[in-house]
Amino acid sequence: MLMRSGDAQPDAFLLRAAWQPGGALGAKLVTILPRSDPSINALYVLFDGASGRPDACMDGDALTWYKTAADSALGARYLAREDAAQLSMIGAGTMAPHLVRAHFTQRPSLQRVCIWNRTLARAHTLLENLQADGIDAAIAGSLQEAVASADVLCTATMTQAPIIDGNWLREGTHLDLVGSFTPDMREVDDAAIRRSRVYVDCCGTALDDVGEIATPIRDGVLKREHIVGDLYDLCSGKCEARRSPEEITLFKNAGGGHLDLMTAQFISQRAAAH
Question: In the chain, which end has fewer C-beta atoms inside a 10 angstrom radius, N or C?
Fold first, then answer.
């Protein structure tokens, strides 16, 4: 990643690549300019793994929206309570509506969405988007209110300093943390880490380079051995999922080039079939 320093939220240029030998390889190029609208723009290029020829060039934004939302929803399938009724969406950027819809597919018990965003205009845009789909949604009076009332708490912000106080969480909440993707970004504080049973989407990519997990490990708040498992472990039954209605579960969606490649291959195959 290349970053322009000197700002609280610096501009960045990100390259995410993955290679499946003999199969395919690809790279996602991402510009992250917090003061622009939209703030994130991306392009994905997929190559044939045998010949090296480019197979496809696709919208990296759309790929990221669906890949990220599916990653979070799969985590919620195993970790959110089956009777979860309220989803609180913290952050109202372009990723937010996709995350909300994905969570509703995996937890049909969800009945309403509570929205909080730093700027009210974006919160209203998301509100209208969701209501147009027939989703019962409202804007929270405060961040604490949105957090404290959540059965599923989904965060997709660009913050570097934690904005979620773990003491606000009620028992039984499932946290889906999406926003942080660099070593110096965090959305939740140490109290949230300490109160939660912690999972990640992939142990190979989430533990060392993403501040949400790497910083608590570095500071001794979280030990590596206390991370219960990742999606591979959950799907294969190698680790326990939610154990009780009172437990607080935390899932860090760190993403990664491997997921981009898998998604790009799927899209390319579907396009070829049609």
Answer: C
